[in-house]
Write a structure and sequence with these properties.
With about 450 residues, this protein is of the alpha/beta class. The chain contains 19 helices and seven strands. It has helices spanning about 65-75, 90-100, 110-120, 130-140, 155-185, 190-195, 200-210, 215-220, 220-230, 235-250, 255-295, 300, 310-320, 330-335, 360-375, 375-390, 395-415, 420-430, 435-445; strands at about 30-35, 40-45, 55-60, 80-85, 105, 340-345, 350. α7 packs antiparallel against α11 (about 255-295), α15 packs across α17 and α16 (about 375-390) runs antiparallel to α17 (about 395-415). The chain is globular and about 90 Å long. The two termini are about 50 Å apart. Mean pLDDT is about 85; it is low at about 1-25.
Amino acid sequence: MHTPLAPSPTALSDRSPADPLPPAPLSYAAYVGLDWGDYRHAFALQAADSLTPPETGQFDHGAEQLHTWLDALCSRFGGQPIAIALEASRGPVVAALLEHPTITVFPIHPATSANFRRAFRPSGASDDVPDALVLLDLLRHHRDRLTSLLPLDLQTQELQLHCEARRKAVDRITLLTNSVTSLLKGSYPQALAMLGDRLAAPLALDFLTRWPTLARLQKAKAATLRKFYHAHNVRRPESIEARLALAAAARPLSTNPAILGVNELSLALLVAELRVLVTHVERFNHAIATLFSAHPERVVFASLPGAGKALAPRLCAAFGTQHERFTSAASVQRYVGVAPVTEKRGKSVYTHWRWSAPAFLRQSFVEWAGQSVRSCLWAKAFYLHAKARGKAHSTILRALAFRWIRFVYRCWQTGTPYDDGRYLQALKKSGSPLPALIEKLTVQLAKT
Protein backbone atom coordinates (compact mmCIF):
# COMPACT_ATOMS: atom_id res chain seq x y z
CA MET A 1 0.00 0.00 0.00
CA HIS A 2 1.35 3.41 -0.90
CA THR A 3 0.96 6.78 0.72
CA PRO A 4 -0.64 9.53 -1.36
CA LEU A 5 1.49 12.62 -1.49
CA ALA A 6 1.49 16.25 -2.42
CA PRO A 7 2.31 17.33 -5.96
CA SER A 8 5.64 16.03 -7.15
CA PRO A 9 7.84 17.78 -9.70
CA THR A 10 8.40 16.56 -13.20
CA ALA A 11 11.48 17.44 -15.20
CA LEU A 12 13.39 20.47 -13.97
CA SER A 13 12.50 22.38 -17.13
CA ASP A 14 8.78 21.73 -16.56
CA ARG A 15 8.52 24.26 -13.74
CA SER A 16 6.53 27.22 -15.00
CA PRO A 17 7.92 30.74 -14.42
CA ALA A 18 4.57 31.47 -12.78
CA ASP A 19 5.17 28.83 -10.13
CA PRO A 20 6.32 30.26 -6.81
CA LEU A 21 9.78 29.33 -5.75
CA PRO A 22 9.99 26.66 -3.04
CA PRO A 23 10.46 27.82 0.54
CA ALA A 24 13.93 28.56 1.87
CA PRO A 25 15.86 25.28 2.00
CA LEU A 26 16.47 23.53 5.26
CA SER A 27 19.98 22.76 6.40
CA TYR A 28 20.56 19.04 5.94
CA ALA A 29 23.21 17.00 7.67
CA ALA A 30 23.47 14.59 4.74
CA TYR A 31 22.34 14.15 1.14
CA VAL A 32 21.51 10.74 -0.31
CA GLY A 33 20.78 9.53 -3.82
CA LEU A 34 18.85 6.24 -3.70
CA ASP A 35 18.50 4.09 -6.82
CA TRP A 36 15.72 1.58 -6.14
CA GLY A 37 15.94 -1.73 -7.99
CA ASP A 38 14.02 -4.98 -8.04
CA TYR A 39 16.54 -7.03 -6.08
CA ARG A 40 19.25 -4.64 -4.86
CA HIS A 41 19.27 -0.95 -4.07
CA ALA A 42 22.23 1.39 -4.48
CA PHE A 43 22.89 4.60 -2.57
CA ALA A 44 25.34 7.48 -2.75
CA LEU A 45 25.78 9.54 0.41
CA GLN A 46 27.50 12.86 1.03
CA ALA A 47 27.68 14.39 4.48
CA ALA A 48 27.12 18.16 4.41
CA ASP A 49 30.42 18.92 6.13
CA SER A 50 32.50 16.36 4.22
CA LEU A 51 35.03 17.28 1.54
CA THR A 52 35.71 13.67 0.59
CA PRO A 53 34.08 11.89 -2.38
CA PRO A 54 30.58 10.50 -1.79
CA GLU A 55 30.19 7.15 -0.08
CA THR A 56 28.48 4.44 -2.14
CA GLY A 57 27.00 1.08 -1.26
CA GLN A 58 24.19 -1.38 -1.87
CA PHE A 59 21.75 -3.44 0.17
CA ASP A 60 19.37 -6.25 -0.74
CA HIS A 61 15.68 -5.79 -1.31
CA GLY A 62 13.46 -6.43 1.70
CA ALA A 63 11.60 -4.61 4.44
CA GLU A 64 14.12 -5.63 7.12
CA GLN A 65 17.10 -4.54 5.02
CA LEU A 66 15.54 -1.15 4.23
CA HIS A 67 14.68 -0.39 7.85
CA THR A 68 18.11 -1.53 9.03
CA TRP A 69 19.75 0.85 6.53
CA LEU A 70 17.42 3.72 7.50
CA ASP A 71 17.92 3.19 11.23
CA ALA A 72 21.71 3.19 10.79
CA LEU A 73 21.51 6.33 8.64
CA CYS A 74 19.38 8.25 11.15
CA SER A 75 21.52 7.06 14.06
CA ARG A 76 24.74 8.08 12.35
CA PHE A 77 23.60 11.70 11.96
CA GLY A 78 22.06 11.92 15.40
CA GLY A 79 18.50 12.79 14.37
CA GLN A 80 19.51 15.71 12.16
CA PRO A 81 17.61 16.35 8.89
CA ILE A 82 18.55 14.14 5.94
CA ALA A 83 17.56 14.70 2.29
CA ILE A 84 16.99 11.68 0.05
CA ALA A 85 16.41 11.82 -3.71
CA LEU A 86 14.92 8.91 -5.66
CA GLU A 87 12.96 8.28 -8.84
CA ALA A 88 9.57 7.84 -7.16
CA SER A 89 6.88 9.99 -5.61
CA ARG A 90 4.74 7.21 -4.16
CA GLY A 91 4.90 3.55 -3.27
CA PRO A 92 5.97 1.42 -0.30
CA VAL A 93 9.56 2.69 -0.22
CA VAL A 94 8.41 6.33 -0.16
CA ALA A 95 5.93 5.55 2.61
CA ALA A 96 8.71 3.87 4.61
CA LEU A 97 11.05 6.83 4.16
CA LEU A 98 8.42 9.33 5.27
CA GLU A 99 7.80 7.42 8.49
CA HIS A 100 11.15 8.79 9.67
CA PRO A 101 10.56 12.40 10.83
CA THR A 102 14.14 13.45 10.09
CA ILE A 103 14.01 12.40 6.41
CA THR A 104 12.84 14.66 3.60
CA VAL A 105 12.10 12.98 0.28
CA PHE A 106 12.80 14.72 -3.03
CA PRO A 107 11.27 12.84 -5.99
CA ILE A 108 13.21 13.05 -9.24
CA HIS A 109 11.34 12.49 -12.47
CA PRO A 110 12.94 9.63 -14.44
CA ALA A 111 13.20 11.88 -17.51
CA THR A 112 15.19 14.41 -15.50
CA SER A 113 17.75 11.92 -14.22
CA ALA A 114 17.94 10.19 -17.62
CA ASN A 115 18.67 13.46 -19.43
CA PHE A 116 21.17 14.51 -16.77
CA ARG A 117 22.92 11.15 -17.02
CA ARG A 118 22.97 11.29 -20.82
CA ALA A 119 24.56 14.74 -20.74
CA PHE A 120 27.67 13.37 -19.06
CA ARG A 121 27.53 9.81 -20.40
CA PRO A 122 26.56 10.02 -24.07
CA SER A 123 27.30 6.30 -24.45
CA GLY A 124 24.04 5.55 -22.63
CA ALA A 125 25.76 3.42 -19.97
CA SER A 126 23.66 2.89 -16.86
CA ASP A 127 24.40 1.15 -13.58
CA ASP A 128 22.90 1.23 -10.10
CA VAL A 129 25.69 2.99 -8.19
CA PRO A 130 26.42 5.58 -10.92
CA ASP A 131 22.68 6.23 -11.16
CA ALA A 132 22.58 6.86 -7.41
CA LEU A 133 25.44 9.35 -7.87
CA VAL A 134 23.40 11.15 -10.55
CA LEU A 135 20.50 11.48 -8.11
CA LEU A 136 22.85 12.74 -5.42
CA ASP A 137 24.32 15.31 -7.81
CA LEU A 138 20.86 16.58 -8.74
CA LEU A 139 19.91 16.84 -5.09
CA ARG A 140 23.04 18.67 -3.98
CA HIS A 141 23.35 21.12 -6.85
CA HIS A 142 19.74 21.67 -7.98
CA ARG A 143 17.73 21.33 -4.79
CA ASP A 144 16.31 24.84 -5.26
CA ARG A 145 14.47 23.54 -8.34
CA LEU A 146 13.08 20.45 -6.63
CA THR A 147 10.01 20.09 -4.43
CA SER A 148 9.96 17.89 -1.39
CA LEU A 149 7.05 15.54 -0.72
CA LEU A 150 4.39 16.47 1.79
CA PRO A 151 2.29 13.55 3.06
CA LEU A 152 -1.45 14.01 2.92
CA ASP A 153 -3.46 14.04 6.11
CA LEU A 154 -4.71 10.63 7.22
CA GLN A 155 -8.37 11.27 6.28
CA THR A 156 -7.46 12.27 2.73
CA GLN A 157 -5.03 9.36 2.42
CA GLU A 158 -7.77 6.89 3.29
CA LEU A 159 -10.25 8.52 0.96
CA GLN A 160 -7.82 8.64 -1.97
CA LEU A 161 -6.66 5.05 -1.54
CA HIS A 162 -10.24 3.78 -1.40
CA CYS A 163 -11.20 5.79 -4.49
CA GLU A 164 -8.22 4.47 -6.44
CA ALA A 165 -8.87 0.87 -5.37
CA ARG A 166 -12.53 1.18 -6.32
CA ARG A 167 -11.61 2.55 -9.73
CA LYS A 168 -9.29 -0.38 -10.36
CA ALA A 169 -12.09 -2.79 -9.46
CA VAL A 170 -14.49 -0.97 -11.79
CA ASP A 171 -11.94 -1.16 -14.60
CA ARG A 172 -11.66 -4.91 -14.02
CA ILE A 173 -15.45 -5.19 -14.21
CA THR A 174 -15.36 -3.37 -17.55
CA LEU A 175 -12.66 -5.75 -18.79
CA LEU A 176 -14.69 -8.80 -17.74
CA THR A 177 -17.97 -7.55 -19.20
CA ASN A 178 -16.18 -6.96 -22.50
CA SER A 179 -14.97 -10.56 -22.33
CA VAL A 180 -18.51 -11.77 -21.63
CA THR A 181 -19.80 -9.77 -24.61
CA SER A 182 -17.16 -11.24 -26.89
CA LEU A 183 -17.89 -14.77 -25.67
CA LEU A 184 -21.67 -14.42 -26.09
CA LYS A 185 -21.31 -12.98 -29.59
CA GLY A 186 -19.50 -16.13 -30.64
CA SER A 187 -21.78 -18.70 -29.04
CA TYR A 188 -24.95 -17.27 -27.51
CA PRO A 189 -25.79 -13.87 -29.11
CA GLN A 190 -29.47 -14.11 -28.14
CA ALA A 191 -28.47 -13.50 -24.50
CA LEU A 192 -27.11 -10.06 -25.40
CA ALA A 193 -30.46 -9.06 -26.90
CA MET A 194 -32.29 -10.33 -23.82
CA LEU A 195 -29.98 -8.68 -21.28
CA GLY A 196 -28.88 -5.39 -22.80
CA ASP A 197 -25.51 -3.82 -22.05
CA ARG A 198 -25.57 -4.06 -18.24
CA LEU A 199 -23.82 -7.41 -18.00
CA ALA A 200 -22.60 -6.80 -14.45
CA ALA A 201 -26.13 -6.17 -13.13
CA PRO A 202 -27.83 -8.84 -10.94
CA LEU A 203 -30.34 -9.54 -13.74
CA ALA A 204 -27.60 -10.46 -16.22
CA LEU A 205 -25.49 -12.42 -13.75
CA ASP A 206 -28.46 -14.44 -12.50
CA PHE A 207 -29.71 -15.06 -16.04
CA LEU A 208 -26.33 -16.31 -17.29
CA THR A 209 -25.90 -18.50 -14.22
CA ARG A 210 -29.30 -20.12 -14.66
CA TRP A 211 -29.34 -20.34 -18.48
CA PRO A 212 -25.72 -20.30 -19.73
CA THR A 213 -26.65 -21.78 -23.13
CA LEU A 214 -29.48 -21.36 -25.61
CA ALA A 215 -30.41 -25.00 -25.24
CA ARG A 216 -31.04 -24.58 -21.50
CA LEU A 217 -32.93 -21.35 -22.06
CA GLN A 218 -35.32 -22.95 -24.56
CA LYS A 219 -36.10 -25.77 -22.11
CA ALA A 220 -37.38 -23.23 -19.58
CA LYS A 221 -41.14 -22.65 -19.34
CA ALA A 222 -42.59 -19.27 -20.27
CA ALA A 223 -44.02 -18.93 -16.76
CA THR A 224 -40.56 -19.51 -15.28
CA LEU A 225 -39.04 -16.76 -17.41
CA ARG A 226 -41.85 -14.34 -16.55
CA LYS A 227 -41.34 -15.01 -12.86
CA PHE A 228 -37.59 -14.46 -13.24
CA TYR A 229 -38.05 -11.07 -14.90
CA HIS A 230 -40.64 -9.99 -12.33
CA ALA A 231 -38.22 -10.85 -9.54
CA HIS A 232 -35.61 -8.58 -11.19
CA ASN A 233 -38.00 -5.61 -11.56
CA VAL A 234 -38.72 -6.08 -15.27
CA ARG A 235 -42.51 -5.79 -15.24
CA ARG A 236 -43.58 -4.31 -18.58
CA PRO A 237 -45.59 -7.11 -20.28
CA GLU A 238 -44.58 -6.07 -23.81
CA SER A 239 -40.88 -6.14 -22.91
CA ILE A 240 -41.13 -9.57 -21.29
CA GLU A 241 -43.18 -11.05 -24.14
CA ALA A 242 -40.70 -9.75 -26.72
CA ARG A 243 -37.90 -11.54 -24.90
CA LEU A 244 -39.88 -14.74 -24.63
CA ALA A 245 -40.61 -14.64 -28.36
CA LEU A 246 -36.94 -14.10 -29.11
CA ALA A 247 -35.98 -17.11 -26.99
CA ALA A 248 -38.60 -19.34 -28.60
CA ALA A 249 -37.61 -18.46 -32.18
CA ALA A 250 -33.85 -18.46 -31.60
CA ARG A 251 -31.50 -20.80 -33.43
CA PRO A 252 -28.05 -21.73 -32.13
CA LEU A 253 -25.12 -20.05 -33.86
CA SER A 254 -23.23 -23.34 -33.66
CA THR A 255 -24.05 -26.86 -32.47
CA ASN A 256 -20.42 -27.95 -32.17
CA PRO A 257 -20.28 -29.60 -28.71
CA ALA A 258 -16.56 -28.82 -28.31
CA ILE A 259 -17.16 -25.08 -28.74
CA LEU A 260 -20.32 -25.01 -26.64
CA GLY A 261 -18.73 -26.96 -23.79
CA VAL A 262 -15.69 -24.74 -23.36
CA ASN A 263 -17.75 -21.57 -23.81
CA GLU A 264 -20.13 -22.63 -21.05
CA LEU A 265 -17.25 -23.19 -18.64
CA SER A 266 -15.59 -19.92 -19.66
CA LEU A 267 -18.85 -18.04 -19.16
CA ALA A 268 -19.30 -19.56 -15.70
CA LEU A 269 -15.78 -18.39 -14.77
CA LEU A 270 -16.40 -14.83 -15.97
CA VAL A 271 -19.76 -14.61 -14.21
CA ALA A 272 -18.24 -15.86 -10.94
CA GLU A 273 -15.45 -13.25 -11.17
CA LEU A 274 -17.97 -10.51 -11.89
CA ARG A 275 -20.04 -11.44 -8.85
CA VAL A 276 -17.00 -11.12 -6.58
CA LEU A 277 -15.98 -7.78 -8.06
CA VAL A 278 -19.50 -6.32 -7.91
CA THR A 279 -19.77 -7.31 -4.24
CA HIS A 280 -16.45 -5.68 -3.38
CA VAL A 281 -17.24 -2.51 -5.34
CA GLU A 282 -20.33 -2.12 -3.17
CA ARG A 283 -18.12 -2.49 -0.09
CA PHE A 284 -15.82 0.19 -1.47
CA ASN A 285 -18.83 2.43 -2.14
CA HIS A 286 -19.94 2.12 1.48
CA ALA A 287 -16.44 2.79 2.82
CA ILE A 288 -15.98 5.82 0.54
CA ALA A 289 -19.35 7.27 1.50
CA THR A 290 -18.46 6.92 5.19
CA LEU A 291 -15.02 8.51 4.75
CA PHE A 292 -16.37 11.33 2.59
CA SER A 293 -19.18 12.18 5.01
CA ALA A 294 -16.59 12.71 7.75
CA HIS A 295 -14.09 14.67 5.63
CA PRO A 296 -13.60 18.35 6.64
CA GLU A 297 -13.88 19.54 3.02
CA ARG A 298 -17.02 17.53 2.21
CA VAL A 299 -19.35 20.55 2.03
CA VAL A 300 -17.36 22.15 -0.78
CA PHE A 301 -17.11 19.08 -2.99
CA ALA A 302 -20.62 17.80 -2.33
CA SER A 303 -21.90 21.08 -3.80
CA LEU A 304 -20.24 20.58 -7.20
CA PRO A 305 -22.85 19.94 -9.94
CA GLY A 306 -22.60 16.52 -11.54
CA ALA A 307 -19.97 15.19 -9.14
CA GLY A 308 -22.27 12.72 -7.40
CA LYS A 309 -21.38 9.88 -5.07
CA ALA A 310 -18.47 8.58 -7.15
CA LEU A 311 -16.68 11.73 -8.32
CA ALA A 312 -17.16 14.12 -5.38
CA PRO A 313 -14.96 11.99 -3.07
CA ARG A 314 -12.31 11.68 -5.82
CA LEU A 315 -12.20 15.45 -6.29
CA CYS A 316 -12.09 15.96 -2.52
CA ALA A 317 -9.13 13.59 -2.22
CA ALA A 318 -7.34 15.45 -5.02
CA PHE A 319 -7.35 18.66 -2.98
CA GLY A 320 -7.26 17.37 0.60
CA THR A 321 -7.20 19.60 3.67
CA GLN A 322 -3.72 21.13 3.41
CA HIS A 323 -4.36 24.43 1.64
CA GLU A 324 -0.65 25.17 1.39
CA ARG A 325 -0.21 22.26 -1.04
CA PHE A 326 -1.36 24.40 -3.97
CA THR A 327 -0.48 28.07 -4.19
CA SER A 328 -2.80 28.86 -7.10
CA ALA A 329 -5.46 27.38 -9.35
CA ALA A 330 -2.83 27.24 -12.10
CA SER A 331 -0.66 24.94 -10.00
CA VAL A 332 -3.62 22.55 -9.64
CA GLN A 333 -4.34 22.71 -13.36
CA ARG A 334 -0.75 21.80 -14.19
CA TYR A 335 -0.52 19.08 -11.57
CA VAL A 336 -3.65 17.19 -12.62
CA GLY A 337 -2.63 17.47 -16.27
CA VAL A 338 -5.44 19.52 -17.84
CA ALA A 339 -3.26 22.57 -18.48
CA PRO A 340 -1.81 22.43 -22.01
CA VAL A 341 1.91 22.69 -22.69
CA THR A 342 3.29 25.16 -25.24
CA GLU A 343 6.52 24.55 -27.11
CA LYS A 344 8.22 27.25 -29.18
CA ARG A 345 10.80 26.39 -31.81
CA GLY A 346 11.85 29.35 -33.87
CA LYS A 347 8.70 30.80 -35.40
CA SER A 348 6.69 27.66 -34.77
CA VAL A 349 4.48 27.23 -31.72
CA TYR A 350 3.12 23.82 -30.68
CA THR A 351 0.49 23.13 -28.05
CA HIS A 352 -0.07 19.64 -26.69
CA TRP A 353 -1.47 18.03 -23.59
CA ARG A 354 0.70 17.48 -20.53
CA TRP A 355 2.45 14.11 -20.70
CA SER A 356 3.66 13.79 -17.14
CA ALA A 357 0.56 13.90 -14.93
CA PRO A 358 -1.26 11.54 -12.55
CA ALA A 359 -3.60 9.61 -14.84
CA PHE A 360 -6.21 8.95 -12.15
CA LEU A 361 -6.48 12.62 -11.17
CA ARG A 362 -6.70 13.81 -14.76
CA GLN A 363 -9.34 11.16 -15.40
CA SER A 364 -11.30 12.31 -12.34
CA PHE A 365 -11.48 15.95 -13.43
CA VAL A 366 -12.23 15.20 -17.08
CA GLU A 367 -14.97 12.70 -16.15
CA TRP A 368 -16.51 15.24 -13.81
CA ALA A 369 -16.41 17.91 -16.54
CA GLY A 370 -18.41 15.55 -18.74
CA GLN A 371 -20.98 14.94 -16.01
CA SER A 372 -21.29 18.66 -15.26
CA VAL A 373 -22.50 19.27 -18.82
CA ARG A 374 -25.67 17.35 -17.92
CA SER A 375 -26.41 19.20 -14.71
CA CYS A 376 -24.96 22.71 -15.07
CA LEU A 377 -26.36 25.15 -17.65
CA TRP A 378 -23.19 27.21 -18.11
CA ALA A 379 -21.13 24.01 -18.54
CA LYS A 380 -23.57 22.78 -21.19
CA ALA A 381 -23.45 26.18 -22.91
CA PHE A 382 -19.65 26.08 -22.82
CA TYR A 383 -19.69 22.62 -24.39
CA LEU A 384 -22.14 23.55 -27.15
CA HIS A 385 -20.28 26.79 -27.92
CA ALA A 386 -16.98 24.91 -28.31
CA LYS A 387 -18.66 22.15 -30.32
CA ALA A 388 -20.04 24.73 -32.74
CA ARG A 389 -16.49 25.98 -33.25
CA GLY A 390 -15.41 22.50 -34.35
CA LYS A 391 -13.59 21.41 -31.18
CA ALA A 392 -13.27 17.69 -30.42
CA HIS A 393 -15.21 16.16 -27.52
CA SER A 394 -12.10 15.27 -25.49
CA THR A 395 -10.56 18.69 -26.08
CA ILE A 396 -13.72 20.42 -24.85
CA LEU A 397 -13.88 18.35 -21.67
CA ARG A 398 -10.24 19.11 -20.82
CA ALA A 399 -10.88 22.82 -21.42
CA LEU A 400 -14.00 22.64 -19.26
CA ALA A 401 -12.09 20.84 -16.50
CA PHE A 402 -9.42 23.57 -16.76
CA ARG A 403 -12.08 26.22 -16.13
CA TRP A 404 -13.83 24.26 -13.39
CA ILE A 405 -10.60 23.98 -11.38
CA ARG A 406 -10.45 27.77 -11.03
CA PHE A 407 -13.84 27.83 -9.31
CA VAL A 408 -13.19 24.74 -7.19
CA TYR A 409 -9.85 26.14 -6.01
CA ARG A 410 -11.51 29.37 -4.88
CA CYS A 411 -14.27 27.48 -3.06
CA TRP A 412 -11.68 25.16 -1.46
CA GLN A 413 -9.55 28.06 -0.23
CA THR A 414 -12.51 29.89 1.28
CA GLY A 415 -14.44 26.83 2.44
CA THR A 416 -17.63 27.93 0.69
CA PRO A 417 -19.93 25.70 -1.41
CA TYR A 418 -20.08 26.30 -5.15
CA ASP A 419 -22.73 28.82 -6.26
CA ASP A 420 -23.79 28.94 -9.92
CA GLY A 421 -25.26 32.42 -9.53
CA ARG A 422 -21.95 34.09 -8.73
CA TYR A 423 -20.28 32.67 -11.81
CA LEU A 424 -23.16 33.64 -14.10
CA GLN A 425 -22.92 37.22 -12.86
CA ALA A 426 -19.19 37.24 -13.60
CA LEU A 427 -19.87 35.93 -17.12
CA LYS A 428 -22.30 38.76 -17.83
CA LYS A 429 -19.84 41.39 -16.61
CA SER A 430 -17.07 39.96 -18.79
CA GLY A 431 -19.17 40.08 -21.97
CA SER A 432 -18.94 36.32 -22.53
CA PRO A 433 -21.23 34.77 -25.20
CA LEU A 434 -22.23 32.04 -22.74
CA PRO A 435 -25.07 33.94 -20.96
CA ALA A 436 -26.97 34.26 -24.26
CA LEU A 437 -26.58 30.52 -24.86
CA ILE A 438 -27.70 29.82 -21.31
CA GLU A 439 -30.88 31.85 -21.87
CA LYS A 440 -31.64 29.86 -25.04
CA LEU A 441 -31.11 26.58 -23.18
CA THR A 442 -33.37 27.76 -20.37
CA VAL A 443 -36.17 28.56 -22.84
CA GLN A 444 -35.74 25.18 -24.55
CA LEU A 445 -35.91 23.35 -21.23
CA ALA A 446 -39.02 25.29 -20.22
CA LYS A 447 -40.76 24.23 -23.45
CA THR A 448 -39.93 20.57 -22.89
